[in-house]
Amino acid sequence: MGSQGKRPASSQAEQGYIGRFAPSPTGMLHAGSLVAALASWLDARAHQGQWRVRMEDVDTPRCVPGADQAILQQLALCHLVPDGPVLWQSQRGLDYQTALDTLIAQGWAYPCACSRKDIESAQTQSVLRHHAAVYPGTCRDGLGGKTARAWRLNVQAVQAAFHLPRITPWQDRRLGGQEQDVLEAVGDFVLRRADGLWAYQLAVVVDDAAQGISHVVRGEDLADNTARQMLLQRALDVPTPHYLHTALVLGTNGEKLSKQNGAQALDLQDPLHALRQAASALNLPVREEVTDIDAQLAQWTDLWRAQHAPRVPFKA
């Protein structure tokens, strides 16, 4: 990771396809997370690439002991086996600190003394995003004698250093053209939290780079994170993957199916049945006469390749 040096001339396509599935071990996989796992696995196989698994256990207080191994067992029952060793975020604190030190050295990260209440009080109007106030940049020019609690990315400084537009555009392989004004949507976002834990945005960017991830396939609810991650990728001089955000699996209440909303753990007494339900959510046809998991996965891979793979294949 450098400062403002040029990136290697070779493209991600020339380096080969590496995808990933990155569950949080706060519980077992549910129907929605199997959809994300299957989509990322199919995309990797359709590109004749590699598929990695990363345990996003950086938020250690929320993680359930043993859930990581249980998730790996669930994936294995579905014949979704990673290529290469599994990575645990909880073991990568030194790498995240190195990235933060790089940003601080360039003047692109600063300490913040604000509590959540301070941020909400600083708003002149009700500017809320996912029930959280947009950070107004209170500590961007100093702490004012207060004690630092967290570290934030100076979005304006990064954009200025690389002559980036205020609005960050990107192309999603399913959603098409997207854009976000990060300062207006979230403000200078957290890199290390007040409780000392590493923020998701920094961890995922550092880990995608370390694992050589060329393609990210994940749920549409995470599309909102893409612009922030792209800014961090530029600041840390690492490649930006290709993104594809899948449609969400909704619960009976119309909200995203998730552990927080009481989603039940997958019933894998019949793994093929669970995979068929996940495939249906991805608009892939189910053939009841196919009773072998590997044969069914192979058929879905062919269909996925026809729907999502580029006309010019990526080199392995």
Question: What are the SSEs and their pairings?
Answer:
Elements: H1 12-15, E1 18-21, H2 31-46, E2 50-55, H3 67-77, E3 87-88, H4 93-105, E4 109-112, H5 116-122, E5 128-129, E6 132-133, E7 150-153, H6 155-161, E8 167-172, E9 176-181, H7 182-185, E10 190-192, H8 200-210, E11 215-219, H9 226-235, E12 242-246, H10 271-281, H11 293-308
Parallel strand pairs: 1-2, 2-3, 11-12
Antiparallel strand pairs: 4-7, 5-6, 7-10, 8-9
Helix pairs in contact: 2-10, 2-11, 8-9
Task: Name a few traits of the molecule.
single chain, 316 residues, alpha/beta, Rossmann fold, 11 helices, 16% strand, elongated, disordered C terminus, Glu/Gln-tRNA-synth_Ib_cat-dom, GluQ/Sye
Strand content: 15-25%
The CATH class name of the largest domain reads Alpha Beta
Structural class: alpha/beta
Count of individual helical segments: 11
Largest sheet, spatial ordering of strands = 1-2-3
| Element order: H for helix, E for strand | HEHEHEHEHEEEHEEHEHEHEHH
CATH H-level superfamily title of the largest domain: HUPs
pLDDT < 50 runs, ≥5 residues: 2-14, 125-131, 311-316
Q: Tally the structural domains.
A: 2
How far is it from the N-terminal to the C-terminal residue, by CA?
25 Å
How would you characterize the largest beta sheet?
Answer: 3 strands, parallel
Anisotropy-based shape: elongated
Please state the oligomeric state of the protein chains shown: single chain
Task: Please estimate the helix content.
Answer: 25-40%
Mean residue pLDDT: 87
- How does CATH name the architecture of the largest domain? 3-Layer(aba) Sandwich
CATH topology of the largest domain: Rossmann fold
Radius of gyration: 20 Å
